[in-house]
Design brief:
The protein has 478 residues and is an alpha/beta fold. The protein is built from 15 helices and 19 strands. Helix 1 crosses helix 11, helix 2 packs parallel to helix 5 and helix 5 packs antiparallel against helix 6.
Length: 478
Amino acid sequence: MPRRVPLGSEVAPRAPERERAFLVGVEIRTRGRSGTKGTVTAQASAARDAAGMQPAKTGMPIGAAGRSNGKPSIPEFDAEESLAELRTLAESAGAEVVGELLQRRDRPDPATLIGAGKLEEIAGAAASVNADVLLFDHDLSPSQQRNIEKIVQRRVIDRTQLILDIFARHARTREGQLQVELAQLHYMLPRLTGHGIEMSQLGGGIGTRGPGETKLETDKRKIARRVRHVEGQIENVRRIRTQQRQRRESAPVATVALVGYTNAGKSTLFNALTQAKVLESSRMFATLDPTIRGVVLPSKRKILMSDTVGFIRNLPHTLVSAFRATLEEVQRASLILQVSDASSRLSAEQDAQVEIVLKELEAEKKPRLRVMNKIDLLDDEVALSLRADALREDSKTVYVSATEGTGLDRLLLRIDAMIEEDPVSRVRLSIPQREGKMLAMLEAKSRIHSRKYKDGAVELEIEAPASVVRRVGEWVVG
């Protein structure tokens, strides 16, 4: 019998049950020129090409890239690490991982990717744990996805669709939601074909044959119309962003963009530098909507810092295209801070994946400073080695811990040295004491090296940005 509830009392709503997900990892082994087997994936090869790197040898030090034939080398994601990343993605999507299986093959099966025999095994394993959905750590063609679903009798989601779902869950602003919807529509369009009887002729039987329109064609036309509508709205967003950027660029204020692999600690670093309260989370893609805050550098110059969406291995091209309006902040930045997880064995490989996206955005030639974050998570021996590197004053790399605040002062000094907008100069001034507003402005916006009072005037030697020096130009002496 249903439980009786006393009149006037309230029952707390049940939390929605998490979907039970079964993970399927896929490793396609290839043969190199020497005839030996390897596991070079397409994305790893593209990453190496983007970064001009060679595959790394096993046993390479954590957080550092080796070298082979004069080129830096990077460790590749192996199958287990790739499956671990899929596990993190699944948890970010709100799923409960109830099982996983890794399949190694010499070549992909064109019909089912991993072969019908292995699929029967996976179907049994998924049924035994009562899984709701199968998550593949690989992109599936529309026909492969349909064939797999027929065999396993469960929903099947590939890596791209999973990432799109996470983006949809985390998008908060109207702009972010539009960009995710556009990417989902582009993903959905080629997957409409052959989903059963619902895609048959609109009518049926006598009197309906002829040049009618199928439901498939109707759905494709509706999606194409929605794509045009969303693209138009995103174009409006881009126009508004351009106007805002033009207003910002009318003043000599540089923009610094934070980029990096997802979960490298960008938002934690952003909060530490700007005192903002952007969401910090270990979940992937916690930050989707860009945030811009002001930062005052040691020279007293002000810059704008932008926190952007994290990148990931094999990031869906549809997402890069859809988020182009947001990622324009990266394209127009004066300096890019590329944040890396120093505690990850794969930090060099992750950086190479970031390089792919920066190339697609045509931002790979921007001035860049690499920030090795999370040094507080390193083993003592490795941490000492990295601190020794930091003492050598590498002009392209800074080691920090955003959580503990280690190295942030050195990072701000390095940013200050690399920013060219509103250059700093050293001048001598003689300002009447009655100019209280100007003296207060100099106190706030310049570094005062000396101060003397003489004949009703204040003689100062200051180091200040050009915009400040122009305001006090009539009192410059010597």
